[in-house]
Design brief:
The complex is a heterodimer of chains A (401) and B (365).
Chain A: H1 2-25, E1 28-34, H2 43-57, E2 61-66, H3 79-88, E3 91-97, H4 102-111, E4 116-119, H5 124-127, E5 134-139, H6 141-155, E6 160-165, H7 170-189, E7 199-204, H8 218-227, E8 232-235, H9 241-251, E9 257-259, E10 276-280, H10 283-294, E11 302-305, E12 320-324, H11 330-347, E13 366-367, E14 373-375, H12 383-387
Parallel strand pairs in A: 1-2, 1-3, 3-4, 4-5, 5-11, 6-7, 6-8, 8-9
Antiparallel strand pairs in A: 10-12, 13-14
Chain B: H1 5-29, H2 34-46, H3 49-74, H4 82-99, H5 104-133, H6 137-157, H7 191-210, H8 212-222, H9 224-229, H10 234-260, H11 272-282, H12 290-311, H13 316-346, H14 352-363
Helix pairs in contact in B: 1-13, 2-3, 2-12, 3-7, 3-8, 3-10, 3-11, 3-12, 4-5, 4-6, 4-10, 5-6, 5-10, 7-8, 8-10, 11-12, 12-13
The chains are: A alpha/beta (401), B mainly alpha (365).
Chain lengths: 401, 365
Amino acid sequence: MRHKVGLFVLVCALLSVVALPALAQDEFVFGVVLVGPENDRGWSQAHYEGGLYVEAVVPGTRMIYFPSLNPADAPETTLLDVVDEMVDQGARVIFTASDAFEEDTNRVAKAFPDVVFINISGDDALTGAAPSNVGNLMGQMEWGKLIAGCAAGLTTQTGSIGYLGPLINAETRRLAASAYLGARYCYETYAGGNPNDLTFTVTWIGFWFNIPGVTLDPNEETNAFYNSGADVVISGIDTTEAIVVAGQRAARGEAVWAVPYDYLGACEEAPEVCLGVPYFHWGPDYAEIVMAVMDGTWSQDWEWVGPDWSDINNPDTSAVGFIFGDGLSEESAAALEDFIADLAAYATNPFIPPSFALWSGWAGPLVLQDGTVLAAEGELVDPLDVWYLGQLLRGMIGASS
Amino acid sequence: MKMNWMTRLAFALLPIIASLAITALLITLVGSDPRAVFERVFEGAFRNSTAFAGVVNFWIPLVLCSMGLVVTFTAGLWNIGVEGQMMVGAIFASWGAQFLALPAPLQVGAEIALAMAGGAVWASLAGLLKVRLGVHEIFGGVALNALANVWAIYLISGPWQPPEGGSAQATRPFPPDAVLPSISNAFPVSLLGLIIAFLAVVGVALALRGTRWGLQLKATGKNPRSALLLGVPTTQSALTALIVCGVLAGAAGSYRALFTYTSLRPLLTGGIGFLGLLVVLLVGVRAIWTPLVAFAFAVVLGGSTRLRVALQLDQSLAGVLQSTVVLMVLLANGLRRRLSARRSVEAPQPTQTAVDFKQEQTAHE
């Protein structure tokens, strides 16, 4: 699939030299609806830059976007109003970049049957709840979180890791659980610790980002983690509080680290305490979808896209990546390289059925918090059971619902 | 001495023209074309029936809250708790939408009635805190607002959480029979919502103007101690004013839940109650002007959606225009008061206090 994208981009680039004037007249407009600001250095900015990528590699395309569509920041407008505007401006495909838009996207899509909608990260195209002009897209961030967890497991000196979670749903549970599995594995395999001694605590702030007076304050919660003995905090929220607080405390001489989330450049907030960042690179998949709509070959799909294992940080092919941070020691960095190579070997192993493409770390024995067996000894977990993970795993501290 | 109609008109138009000029200047300073901006806002609000519906859908809850606040302000109360009253209204309506199963025509009516009751309960809590425990309604209101938000989030992430695969950022969309129907696809506005808003405007205006209750509210608002001495039941006035506001705010909340979002969402009130406070202060608590000014706000805010999509201008621009209008109107009001005070001092009759009294009276008409 990725190679096809590369080829198409190349062909487009060649064509653009020949046919630029013609294409420029026939501009293709696509819309991106963001739940947060386009410069949040997190989830929304990653999507915004995905749109910029499309503009750069697919000639003749132009993005229009709407930032911060949520009841608190834009009470005067709804997804219907925004989509109506975008369609009026010529948009033919609209990305609704939040699971908060999942239900609204279906409702609005029915009113605009000629426009293609891509909701990230819903599953209605999988369950059949969506009309035929709605598709879904999500990156397999589980890999990124395994790597993030591993970096934390390699680095922790106190044997205690905090996970700053947003609200509780299947997506956030499976991402927190992935980080937990990565931390356990690397704490044992590379750092030589007993994984049962590792404390992994999840605190849910209540929403994707801080809403003063409504959610828990992510700054306070990060401080609470460090105050109670954790020395690494992994962020699962849209914004950068964890790494900012870690940077402040490190400046006071404390040995603390953080792993931000979502956005390629998130480490820049406090590079010295950053162990790395698992991030989304929406551009290639956005481009593929836009091109499919342009040439009329798009059809409804639920896409859950993994990294390009030949180079997880290839900006033209990988949907999910991990940038190493300056806070990682040399040995830890080497161990993390090793771990990523193992993941790649597993994920690309032709003898493992693609439907079980998630890492062997998601193999039994795995038990949910209430004692339900998710996978018995030696059994693999079906990826959809990971997608719909109903509880945190036994061994993690924190609420499942 | 009364100002002639030209002066009055000038004082009404001046702040609007001044704020447009200031905003235009700001837009030019950031390198955009102010004419394009105003054009986009206008198009955004009036381009077609769907765009205009967006404006009306924002206006309905805004005018409901504002009319409620006209009542509490008349009684001399700062009902900051209007946001929470809206939220509790939305919660009550959402309960009805999910768990009541009545014959179709009764269903929606029952949900709205529940919402009104919810808003009234929440408002009377603020009222009881004030009259029984002496907690100022501002502090009580702020606390009750926070409580209502936390309650909604608890319900959404807890007992009312959608089944697996749902987003956990809203309840499941309510069934079609449980939500307010649109007038048409081209003009998605609820007729029932419009009727309730209309009744609220007329009802509040008439009640304040021509009823004993309205008079008691005014007396309580102007000077509760003298009103009490003159036999006005001030405690009762304050409580009933809050309850009426709660009823209207609850209805506003139900519109957000049963029409705008067709589900319960965190923060679905979106500060509309606070905007209502602004509207009512701006018109000097005059019931008749309230729906018009609320409409103007809805146009600017609703129209700015297009601004953001078309020109990618920062979303705070609509807020800048709005705040400039507020500032200018307040300045103009102050100026007018000073001017008329000076004139009346120069005139031999009547006395200063009488002028003040008369002025306030006209202000409340």
